[in-house]
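Researcher: I'd like a candidate sequence for this fold, 208 residues long. If you have to choose between options at a position, lean toward the conservative one.
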């Protein structure tokens, strides 16, 4: 699938970066999410196990769901995906999931820990493709813990910051792309100073 963690700055020309930012900040339609990491049903189940878990709300724009394109913005983003994969000599096969998240700065003190819970996006083989629409705080955290394909989503409660070490901390910077094996448990810090907007795909790729 993919080895290592790949970070590429200015993966696309600045003019394309600016157009993506304009679309997501002025034209995209957003839906409120109770929690940006988990859907509401899974969050409620996890909260029974971890009563200290608090929702971290944000806004969500779906691009691809279940392998089906659900937003016309995806077609505008597709060249970004292809150019990013070219940088690591990978070939695009399909996108099983694609979405963008928009988060507002949190109120100081509302969370004791600004780090979101460690998670994987899904438990089927995929590569994470993470693009930063704007420069902000709210780093991406990638741990040394890895899931097994086919795990149950509820197993994520076993992976926390006491058990897993953070091996890479990536600052959101406009035009920056991060790609890594989808088995890595990862998370984001909540932004405290600026809006945080990212594009996230789960991709199926092959070697060129």
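Model: Candidate sequence:
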């Amino acid at each position: 699938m993919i080895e290592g963690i790949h970070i590429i700055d200015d993966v696309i020309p600045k003019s394309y970066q600016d157009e993506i930012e304009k679309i997501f900040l002025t034209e995209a339609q957003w839906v409120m999410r109770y929690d940006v990491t988990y859907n509401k049903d899974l969050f409620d189940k996890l909260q029974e196990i971890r009563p200290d878990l608090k929702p971290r709300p944000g806004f969500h724009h779906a691009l691809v769901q279940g392998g089906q394109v659900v937003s016309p913005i995806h077609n505008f983003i597709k060249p970004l995906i292809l150019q990013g994969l070219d940088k690591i000599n990978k070939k695009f096969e399909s996108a099983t999931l694609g979405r963008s998240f928009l988060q507002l700065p949190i109120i100081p003190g509302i969370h004791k820990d600004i780090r979101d819970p460690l998670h994987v996006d899904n438990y089927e083989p995929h590569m994470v493709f993470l693009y930063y629409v704007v420069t902000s705080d709210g780093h991406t955290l990638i741990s040394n813990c890895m899931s097994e394909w086919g795990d149950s989503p509820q197993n994520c409660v076993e992976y926390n910051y006491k058990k897993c070490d953070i091996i890479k901390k990536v600052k959101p910077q406009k035009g920056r792309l991060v790609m890594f094996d989808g088995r890595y448990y990862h998370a984001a810090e909540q932004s405290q100073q600026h809006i945080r907007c990212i594009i996230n795909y789960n991709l199926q790729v092959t070697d060129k």
